[in-house]
Every structure is written in C-alpha cells, then in structure tokens.
C-alpha cells in the first residue's frame, strides 16, 4: 500500500472518529486512536512510533477520563448508575425504532422514567435527568478533546515524515 493511500485512509478514519465522538453512535476516540496508532506502526521510525505511543496514551486516557469525570459529576448529584443503564437500554431500543434521534429520545426518556420510579417526584426526576444529560455532554467534550489532540499529533507527525 502506498503512503498516500495509507495517509488518506487514516485521514478518513480520523474524520469518521471525530464525527463519532460528537454523535456518539460509534466510539469516536477509539476509532481515531486506532487509526493513528496503526499509521504510526506502519510508518515506523521515530515519528511513527512516537505518535503511535502518544495515540495509545491519549486514547486510553480519554476513555478513563470521560467515565471518571462524568461518574464523579453524577455521583455528587446523586444520580445512580442504574438510571443511566436504563436510559442507555431505552436509547439503544430508540435508535432502532427512530433512527439516530431515537438514541437521544430513548436515553432521556429512560433516565427520566428510572428516576421518576426511584424518586416518585416528577420535578426531582427531571432535575436528575438534566444532570445525566450534562454528564453525557461532559463525556462527549472529553472524548472529542482527546480525539482532536490525537488527530493533531498525527498531522504533525505526517508533516514531519512527508515533508
């Protein structure tokens, strides 16, 4: 495979991964990390292996950070994991019933229903659902930030190898 084809395939995978980090249909940060790691391993040399190791570190760090930060946020606000799990299950069902937007509708509705059942108060359930939505936004921002850092590292490595 020529280096130009490899570069284009990695750029396409990075683009798909960045969109996935925002839309949350695929694990975008993981896609970006794997693409950049693969490019670095195939390219080799100091720049290739440096960006491969950096991509692995940023990807693992991103996965861990997004769950730690969002989990801590939710724990401080008293939203249990069970409610999020119920929201996630209904989100997946919603994704197939109403493509794309059903994921969000199902997650919000499922979290609200779980919190309504747990708390018995519609106002408190709505507030807890808002916290869950903010935590989701935080995790998206963390994943996107680290995916962008990985993509920038790849671009710098690409420029140093090809120029």
Automatic annotation (TrEMBL):
The chain crosses the membrane at residues 12-42, 48-71, 83-114, 134-159. The keyword Cell membrane does not apply. It comes from the Bacteria. Pfam families: DUF456. Keywords: Membrane, Transmembrane, Transmembrane helix. InterPro entries: DUF456 (IPR007403). This is DUF456 domain-containing protein. It comes from Aeromicrobium tamlense.
